[in-house]
Amino acid sequence: MGSNDSELLDRRHLGDSLLFASQFPQDSSTVWDLGSGVGLPGIPLAICLPDTEFVLIDRSGKRCQLLRRVIRILDVANCHVVQTDIENLDGSVDVIVSRASLPPDELGVVVGKHLDPEGVAVVAGSWRKRPQVTDWTTIEIPPDVLDQTIWLLIMRRQ
Fold this sequence. Notes:
Layout (H helix, E strand, L loop, with lengths): L4 H15 L10 E5 L7 H7 L4 E6 L2 H14 L4 E5 L9 E7 L4 H11 E10 L12 E5 L8 E7 L2
Parallel strand pairs: 1-2, 1-4, 2-3, 4-5
Antiparallel strand pairs: 5-7, 6-7
């Protein structure tokens, strides 16, 4: 890591992850992090919301091994890992989060199958411009909050 990487990690990755929590009920019982990758946003959210169960879902065995190791090292008791393809998920949940795992329209299909009534999905990505999507509410986070403009896509199941 370079001398500026720590600040970038704080602002871009940890700060970005915590923005997700602003859009779902803090008393949510379970949150799925779809396509969790290295654990963003799931692990920072699990640390901040210890009474909520977080399920980090990824298809990569190597990523899942890394996630399990990070959870063990950080002692995040309310977080566990499931290795599977998103298409193979069973069940439903009250909150789904995802950061750059699938294009929003594709993710919308998955969310529609697995989101509880009154549930909410919060999605972000590495978009250079405002995403043009249907069935999602878009919230713009201005660059003075983090180091660049971020868009959160919100889907609420009614």
